[in-house]
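Morning, I've got a small favour to ask if you have a moment. I owe you a coffee for this, so here goes:
>
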Amino acid sequence: MDKEKRNETIAGFDPDNSVATNAGIFGLPFALEESEIVLYPVPWEVTVSYREGTANGPYQIFTASPQLDLYDHHFGEIWKKGIHFFTAHVGDMAKLNNNLRPIAKKYIESLEQGGGAQKEVLSHINEACFQLKETVKSVCTSLLNEGHKIGLVGGDHSTPLGYIEALAERHEHFGILQIDAHADLRDAYEGFVYSHASIMHNALAISENISLTQVGIRDYSKGERERMENDTRITTFFDADIKEAAFAGKTWSSQVEEIIHTLPDKVYVSFDADGLCPDLCSATGTPVPGGFSFEQAVFLLVKLKESGKEIIGFDLNETGNAEWDGTVSARLLYKMCGMF
């Protein structure tokens, strides 16, 4: 990274001024080579099982981001680290997504109507999703080798798998902090190996040295519940248990301490927007009643940072195709940059 050039850019930028029309994410002027933090958008939702729109999540976040004030209450002048929205391959990914989504949707509808699995269609979709994963892994590996820190911006929750694989090649042991309404532990949901509902199943398959702490889970299958109970690498904090403890007088602060205590020294954060209350993410793909307020989620992220654990990467996914969802996620994304 060119720190001297970044310092020149910082000196010439007024964070309190109006945003230039050609500005980057959050209205910032940083080029890739100046930026410590790279936000990598992956506009992908080929295998979504309910509502569409999350492929446009990165666009909604980018569009809303310049309205954010750059001095952060918890982390101060995050922007001075240099933050860049890296769009390599994005056009190709979006085009492929738009071509494949109707095919996958028709396949899913056939399954729901009692039709049998169409092996050729399923194989075609799985191969395309594999190639997407490999592209993400390749891009993230290159960015990591150049010294950048990465925040992946989905897209549906399947999108960060390649990034997690790239991190697993650099870090022997780390934990994933998953903030989510869903467990995402299904094995090839609906036949899709790289389904959004299978991301944590796939992440745990990368290495035995990856552990998983799930927070806010409130929608899951019987098989996933059995996996949570029997896999010693998984610790789950169910939304119902969190709320019931609060009703009985247990503070969120003490619960956050327990959550952070389950994590190893190195942590990857995977934040699904549906982990929030639905009024904050009403256009997300699979909204579920319950969830966290914005302030609860931020408190957890801030305390994780204060714990001294090393944040090795993060993703923010499942932002819906709506202005309000983009507004909420843009602010959450900036906070997550502060964790670095």
